[in-house]
Amino acid sequence: MVEITDLTEMRGTSRHDATDKRASDAPIPLAAVSAAQWGALGERAIEPNAYYLPDWELAVNASASGRTGAFALAAFDEAPSPRLIGLMPVISLWRACKIPLPALVSAHPYGTFCTPLLDRDMADDAAAKLLQQARNAGARALLLREVALDGPALRAITDHLARDGIAARVLQSHVRACLDATGDGEILLREALGGKKLKELRRLRHRLAEHGAVTFDVARAPDDVASAIERFLALEASGWKGQRGTALIQVAGDAAFIRRATRALAETGQCEIVTLCAGDTPVAAGIVLRHQSRAFFFKLGVDERFAKYSPGVQLTLELTRHLCADPAIASADSTASPDHPMINPIWRGRFAIGDVLIPLQRRDPMVALIAAALVSRQSLQSNARRAVRLIRSRGAKSA
Predict the structure, then answer these.
(1) pTM for the whole thing?
(2) Which end of the chain is more exposed for a tag (fewer CB within 10 A), N or C?
(3) What average pLDDT does the segment 343-370 reach?
(4) For the chain, which domains are there?
């Protein structure tokens, strides 16, 4: 049985630059991909994914805890000169799931979205070359985690597979909140929440204003984003994430990644940090990425001393109005959990996301083993999460 546990041992992965024609035979270190070519591919991508833009993913790959050292399946159009037409950051199945079977897995970019970048004019060719690279690496399957199930990128991949008589398998799926930003923000909020709920939220906002005038600020310029990210990090660490030790600023590598990524993306107008203040006091802040016509609501931090005024909801209402008023934005992905209690009632659109297993050969029995191992692991994780929720619930009741 062939096992893929360390991509650094693959043929050609450490010797060739990403623009070298020989490098198209196998995965290459993610850091070896030309950032200029990668950025140009992002502009031509058939489907937006801000988490796989170079300024974001290279920052993740450089220092984010548990997410460094990824490789790339990189597809090139060789004529008249090498041009990047497809990119999929990957790690081994062993590293991703501790399963010693020959498969590659889309590398997790911190945001919960891993749809690969494919050139909109050469999507089929890009898909074919990415899949062939995975085969060349010895993989028997490719696991695409958290991809858009109805998106054009996955469709290009599955259409190519279908011509070879290969069918992909969805291992798990869910829907999460998204925003149709093409309409009027006030109308959208009224339809989503109703007049009674909006009246209550306005009352809470007036009470919040007793602590100082309520303002909504959007930081766009690199220096402004660099200042705003520090306010965000402090807010996030002040709440339950800080108590659990999961706030970005509590892990040096994570703090370094988010500072680098947000400033770099601000240089190209692809990052905003939104902040709600009461007087001089920030009460909520969020990181918003932009790619093509889609926004991505990455994270939210709130000052829990103001929890009774619903600062996270108040910020999200302002963000909704802001995005709907921006003609460059057509939609926004919440990148939230499927049952998120705050965003779901406000952003009523739904976006189908799932994990998709791609066989790389026809009728390969190894793929059934890989699928069974992944399903078993998923079941164990689900049971563990239910047990944790039950323990916490019982603890809360007895407190």
Answers:
(1) 0.91
(2) C
(3) 97
(4) 7-176+352-395 (3.40.630), 182-329 (3.40.630)
